[in-house]
Specification:
- It is built from 24 helices and twelve strands.
- By secondary structure, it is an alpha/beta fold.
- α7 links the parallel β1 and β2.
- The longest helix is centred in the middle third of the chain and has 15 residues.
- The radius of gyration is 36 Å and the shape is globular.
């Protein structure tokens, strides 16, 4: 008999039958009253057989294996050990068929004439032993009916710091018992007293991942993948605190192997990463820190908005500490005045707009914790805020990379350097679409009025940068270079005025060292030449190196030069150095 194995459904059936059935021991001989009852005519009700439908079905198969073809019964006591094991296997396999077991009729039960064998060959179904509170199947899937499952939590320490760890563990407690917590980090971080206290508070352990000089793949990613596979083999649910979309491929492999996976992501992370896990039907937990302004810890400078609308950099003499505030009350007032459209919109741009509407300059634009404190003081002075006039656009230029460690220390930390190396924050007033876009691109150094003429090319260059592209996708505007020029302009204007935007945009390619580079190769006579002269010389250099399409704008030519110089092979660089 070929039977299909369906573990979850049939194990539940066996557990239910084991609780309901009270079968007599097979070695006890039947009483005369029971034999007389079993000998009743077939027309009598089936209940009077004193044998349940499941018992009859088990007995029928057992009797067919335990009796001869002539109908002579074989008692259960005469079975050998091998036959006894086979009989028990048949009992278990009976309830793993696709359909529910059906009770045979009384006529079928008595037609064989083996009533004695029917009673003697009855064997109780082996009881299912209760496993631990977190039961799993052979492949790691959580068995239905189990109380709780065991979770192995793997956290990328480069992405989620000590402030995240308690939040992640508390969120996972609703999904099971977090039995193991592993933090993947380079050895140097463990010397921090703050890290030691945090890992002890969650009952975790460090997994030291050295940083090798070869290879370009994150070593934490490889280590997490290896430990996830090991935890899955032990029947545990794998929870990954990561931020990289590559882990969706790992989750896909684990799920196909029957291993449960939970993805833990930052609430402000990339929307595409969460979507990749959701497409695999992997549960996604979103974690957000109560105070999201800790990136300014260690800052040495601040940006201050002046009354004339410009921002200046000033030393941060104040002691910057994490100041708590009632965020719900803050959001409620901003929603009532129209500075926010939903409770999930970013707070800082809305607070800046409210301060500008109420003419509260000068005030601190960054660090953001000080900006929010200015807003709280404003709300304390006024019972109701003025309505949002909708004419202000807040922009925080950001330089994601391109500075040295010494430059980062100059501003305090690398997070602080992001907001100072990119340039001063600025505020635009929403007038016509083309004027706003042109002023916005000039402020981010994607459009230079001295030498650029193509605004649409500047939009394409802006939208092709990684941070800007991800933000536009998050806002639901898609990839602008794929749109017609008029549609791309409209979408960019929508992104600028959207209350869901945090105002952080990546600046254009830097021109540091480009004039010296061209002068050394004979395309420029003086490294101190004007931007228009450098723009023309750069076009000649790209044409001499065989670039088929020469961009019109200076920022696009800088981007083409960078890609040209960073190409991995000389053939791709198309450059013959003497």
């Amino acid at each position: 008999v070929q039977l299909r194995f369906k573990s979850k459904k049939k194990k539940k059936q066996i557990a239910q039958l084991d609780q309901q059935q009270q079968l007599p021991p097979p070695t006890v001989p039947p009483s005369p009253t029971t034999l007389a009852t079993l000998a009743t005519p077939p027309q009598q009700d089936l209940v009077s057989l004193n044998v349940s439908s499941e018992e009859t079905n088990v007995s029928e198969i057992a009797s067919s294996n335990g009796s001869t073809t002539s109908g002579t019964p074989r008692s259960s006591s005469s079975l050998s050990s091998d036959e006894d094991d086979k009989l028990r296997s048949l009992d278990a396999l009976l309830f793993e068929e696709d359909e529910e077991p059906k009770a045979p009729s009384a006529a079928r039960a008595t037609s064989n004439g083996d009533l004695d064998a029917l009673q003697k060959s009855l064997k109780p179904i082996p009881a299912i032993e209760e496993g631990p509170s977190d039961a799993h199947s052979e492949k790691g899937n959580h068995v239905k009916g189990a109380k709780r499952r065991e979770i192995c939590l793997l956290i990328d320490g480069d992405i989620m710091g000590p402030d995240h760890w308690p939040l992640i563990k508390n969120a996972l407690e609703a999904h099971g018992n977090v039995k193991e917590t592993k933090i993947f980090t380079p050895p140097g971080n463990t010397n921090s007293k703050r890290w030691k206290q945090a890992v002890d508070s969650v009952g975790g352990e460090y997994v030291f991942v050295p940083r090798y000089t070869v290879g370009n793949k994150g070593p934490n990613d490889i280590a997490i993948a290896a430990h996830a596979a090991l935890a899955g083999r032990r029947g545990m649910t794998v929870a990954m605190g990561v931020a990289d979309g590559d882990f969706a491929s790992l989750a896909d492999i684990l799920v196909k192997e029957g291993i449960d996976v939970i993805a833990v992501l930052n609430s402000g992370g990339r929307a595409g990463v969460a979507r990749a896990f959701s497409n695999l039907e992997v549960p996604v937990l979103s974690i957000s820190l109560p105070n999201r302004f800790k990136e300014a810890r260690g800052a040495r400078w601040k940006w201050v908005m002046q009354c004339n609308g410009s921002c200046v950099k000033q030393p941060l003499d104040d002691v910057l500490e994490d100041q708590s505030f009632d965020e719900d009350a803050l959001r409620t007032k901003l929603l009532e005045a129209g500075y926010l459209e939903s409770a999930s919109d970013p707070v800082v741009p809305a607070v800046v707009k409210a301060l500008l509407v109420h003419s509260k300059a000068p005030f601190v634009m960054w660090p953001w914790s000080m900006t929010v404190q200015h807003g709280i003081k404003l709300f304390a002075q006024r019972a109701r805020l003025k309505q949002n006039n909708g004419k202000y656009i807040i922009v925080f230029p950001n330089l994601v990379s391109g500075f040295t460690k010494a430059q980062a220390e100059e501003y305090g930390t690398s997070s602080c350097a992001y907001f100072f190396r990119g340039g001063a924050p600025f505020v635009l007033q929403d007038t016509s679409t083309d004027d706003v876009i042109r002023e916005f691109l000039v402020g981010l150094k994607y459009y230079n009025p001295e030498c650029d003429e193509d605004l649409d090319e500047a939009i394409i260059t802006f939208a092709s940068m990684g941070l800007n592209k991800r933000t536009l996708v998050y806002l639901g505007l898609g990839f602008l270079p794929n749109l017609p020029p008029h549609a791309a302009r409209a979408c960019l204007h929508t992104a600028l005025v959207s209350p869901k935007s945090n105002g952080i945009w990546k600046v254009g390619p830097r021109d540091e060292g480009v004039a010296e580079f061209l002068e050394a190769r004979g395309f420029l006579w003086n490294a101190n030449a004007q931007v228009a002269t450098v723009h023309t010389a750069l076009g000649k250099f790209l044409a001499a190196r065989g670039l088929r399409h020469i961009p019109k704008n200076f920022s696009a030519r800088l981007l083409a030069l960078r890609r040209h110089l960073q190409a991995p092979t000389p053939n791709q660089r198309l450059e013959l150095e003497e």
